[in-house]
Amino acid sequence: MTAQTVASVPAYLVPAAGAPLERGTIPRRPVGEHDVLIEIKYTGICHTDIHRARDDMGGGVFPMVPGHEIAGLVTAVGPGVTRYRTGDRVGVGCMVDSCRECGNCRAGLEQFCANGAVETYNSTGRDGDPTYGGYATHIVVDENFVLRVPEGIPLDEAAPLLCAGITLYSPLTHWAAGPGRKVAVVGLGGLGHMGVKIARALGAEVTVLSRSLSKKDDGGGWARITSTPPATPRRSSSWPAAST
C-alpha cells in the first residue's frame, strides 16, 4: 500500500452499540502534506475500547473501529514530513489532532485543546470525517501526533505504553516520584502493573494496596503488597447503569 493507493483498509468494526466485532473495511484519507501512513503491527486493547463499543459512556459513533494503543511501521510519508521516513518504528496514542492555535495547544498541552482535541477514534476530524482507530491494518496520522518507538522496545510491548503507560507516567513524573519518595498503587490491574513498574524504574519505594494477597506473586518483587478486606460486598464487574 502506498500514499497514492490509500482509500479503504481492512478493519474490525463494531456496527452498533453492544454488537460483536465484525470484519469490514473503512476509509482512510490520502496521505497529505504532513501525514504519515503507518502499517499497524500491534494494537493494545484498552478497557475504554470495551466501554466505547458498548456505548457505556454515550456519544458512540457507529460503525466504530476502536484502538488507541497503536504500534507499527511507517510505509509512506507526505512531502512536508520532516520527522519520519519509511521504515521507522512509530506509535499513535489517544489523539490524532487538535486546533494547534489555542493557549493549551501552543503550550504543548494539546490534550486540553480549548477547541476540542481529535481522538484517535469515535471522534470527528478537522476535515469533518469520523476517526477510526487501530483495529485495522493501516492508519494515516499527522506527523505531529506520531511518536517514535525506540529500537530497544518491541512493538507489541510499546503499544500499551501509548495509553496505559502515559496514564501512569504523567502523574508519577508530575509528582516527582523517584529515590526517597514513596508511591502507593491502588490495585494491581492493567494500569496498576504499569504504575508499579514505572514508579520502581524511577527509583521510588512502591506499595500496592489490594483487596487480597492473590496477586502477590504478580508483583514480581517490584513492590510490597498489602491487603485490607473490603468493608462491603464487592461490586459486580459489570458497568453500572447511569442514574437519572
Description:
The strands form 4 sheets. A 5-stranded antiparallel sheet has the order 8-3-4-5-9. A 3-stranded parallel sheet has the order 10-11-12, covered by helices on one side. A two-stranded antiparallel ribbon has the order 1-2. It has helices spanning 47-54, 103-106, 155-158, 164-174, 190-201; strands at 8-13, 22-27, 35-43, 70-77, 89-92, 95-97, 118-119, 138-142, 147-148, 182-186, 205-210, 224-227. The protein is of the alpha+beta class. The chain is 16% helix and 25% strand.
Can I get a quick summary?
This protein has helices at residues 47-54, 103-106, 155-158, 164-174, 190-201; strands spanning 8-13, 22-27, 35-43, 70-77, 89-92, 95-97, 118-119, 138-142, 147-148, 182-186, 205-210, 224-227. It is an alpha+beta fold and 244 residues long. The radius of gyration is 20 Å and the shape is globular.
Low-confidence stretches: 235-244
Helix percent reads 10-25%
By oligomeric state, this entry counts as single chain
Helix/sheet category: alpha+beta
| Average pLDDT | 89
How many distinct beta strands? 12
Counting DSSP H or I runs of 4 or more residues, the number of helices is: 5
Euclidean distance between termini CA atoms? 49 Å
Strand content: 15-25%
Q: Mind telling me the C-alpha Rg?
A: 20 Å
Task: Give the overall form.
Answer: globular
In spatial order, strands of the major sheet run: 8-3-4-5-9
Q: In this structure, how is the largest beta sheet organized?
A: 5 strands, antiparallel
The H-and-E topology, N to C, reads as EEEHEEEHEEEHHEHEE
